[in-house]
Amino acid sequence: MSTYEAVIGLEVHVELKTQSKLFCGCSTEFGKEPNTQVCPVCLGLPGSTGVLNKKVVELATKAGLALNCEIGTTTWFDRKNYYYPDLPKGFQISQVFRPIAYKGYLDIEADGQNKRINITRAHMEEDPGKLVHSGGSITTSHSSCVDYNRSGIPLIEIVSEPEIRSGAEAKAYLEKLKAILEYTGVSDVKMEQGSLRCDANVSIRPVGTTALGTKTEIKNMNSFRAVQRAIEYEVERQVAVLEDGDSVIQETRGWDENKGITLSMRNKENPDYRCFIDHELTHIELTPEWIEEVRATLPELPDARRKRLVEEHGLPVYDAGIMTSSLDLADFFDAALRKFPDAKVISNWIMGELLRLLNAHTMELSEAKVTPGGLAKLLELIKKGTISNKIGKEVFELMFSEGKDPEQIVKEKGLVQISDEGQLTQILTDIIAKNPKSVEDFQSGKEQAIGFLVGQVMKATKGQANPGVVNTMLREILTKN
Fold first, then answer.
1. Quaternary form (predicted)?
2. The domain spanning residue 460 has which CATH number?
3. Which tens digit of pLDDT belongs to each residue from 159-174?
């Protein structure tokens, strides 16, 4: 890659969070039996006409504002004509000529560098149906069925400029985009359910040139990590093609997660969609006053929230970035902070224990039984010396799995920290007697020996002894002797 650079543009399809479809009253609920949420309008039956869902326009406008876009005061829908089994009308209602939002941008950080990625447009459109393949993918299947439940579900398609230069930048862009859409309530952005889907247009060109190379479009990527890996593979593949003296073919390629490669799906040379305005649907006129009303509903977005955590609560930039990476996590952090006003301690526990357990159990935060108030109570017990930090981690695991109150767990398990010097004296006497070499080392100036002895006391008390008290008592005893 020293002689080539990657040129990457992303097309992100985002399902809007509405209860009904774009032009009909059919439900958008996920996971229902195939073809049970359809009507003549979303099936494209002859003579059927639809009515625009106003909520779609509101959410699309809100998304555009959050993405720093200009909003078109006059916009309309167009027909994008092509044939595919999942498109019952033979055309898709989209916005080709006059998108509702355009000329936006996102600021990202990748590989230690800050970069602005410009957004060409964000436009409304209807989702086609869904092909259900007999095999693992379209390339390995002998047949496919069509589920039209998704047909007519409202989307916005967010198209970036081809300014992304690596898989890492693409992943950072998608993570930032997902967080903004989640914060605004525009979409639930569940990639596993298809409410956020990404296609990547990838080409390469010699470093120092400006002409665009032949691009391929990559599909079937079901995670941000998959997007990054697919782009990295495709860039390497195209370099190898050119180095072998061949030409890159403009085509659609699918990502095979198991093999870690892209596979050719179909040729895409100069597609002609014969687009024209859909005159059966009226133009949409948005007043500046209405646009400002929508702007007023925007919440505190990730960048502003991260800045607040750094400036008002003294969190390191890294911690603040983690805390604001998703809306659920940011809300959890803020709720805990209201009850236990030590931002750094809370972020340490969230990053060290909560995220560890969520990853280990492959769970979302919304599925966890631990609450912000429960975490705050636990940290208060540790701060007061009722339990040690080590015991606190054991209690937290029980809170996570059982949802119990930390005080209840401590009481039931008898985990109260031993700070009484009378209780500790005999234990320390036994430990000192059993470890004469460590005692001798400490008395001869080897400071680290005290740590070993404290560890033995903690082991003997199953972590319940107060390590600070133990350290002080040991020093007093060994210094006198």
1. Heterotrimer of A, B and C subunits.
2. 1.10.10.410
3. 999 999 999 999 999 9
Residues 386 and 247 in one domain: no
List own/partner pairs for 284-292 with CB under 8 A and 24 or more apart.
Answer: 284/52, 284/57, 284/74, 284/75, 284/76, 284/100, 285/73, 285/74, 286/57, 286/61, 286/71, 286/72, 286/73, 286/74, 286/75, 286/100, 287/73, 288/73, 291/61, 291/65, 291/71, 291/73
- Asked if residue 161 is part of any domain, the answer here is yes
- Consecutive H or E run containing 44: none
Q: Please enumerate in sequence order all residues whose Cβ is within 8 A of that of 87, keeping only pairs 6 or more positions apart, or say none.
A: 128, 129, 151
As given in the structure block, the two tokens for residue 107 are 């600021």
Identify whether the C-beta of residue 62 lies closer than 8 Å to the C-beta of residue 186.
Answer: yes
Structural domains counted in the chain: 3
Within this chain, do residues 431 and 408 fall inside the same structural domain, yes or no?
no
Model confidence at 475, pLDDT cuts 50, 70, 90, reads confident
**93 plus 233 within the same structural domain:** yes
Last residue of a domain, one of 291, 319, 337: 291
Domain span at 342: 302-413
CB 186 within 8 A of CB 195: no
* Domain assignment of residue 297, yes or no: no
For the entire predicted model, the pTM comes to: 0.85
* The token pair that represents 36 in the structure block: 């049970």
Q: What is the pLDDT of residues 172-207, one digit of tens each?
A: 999 999 999 999 999 999 988 889 999 999 999 999
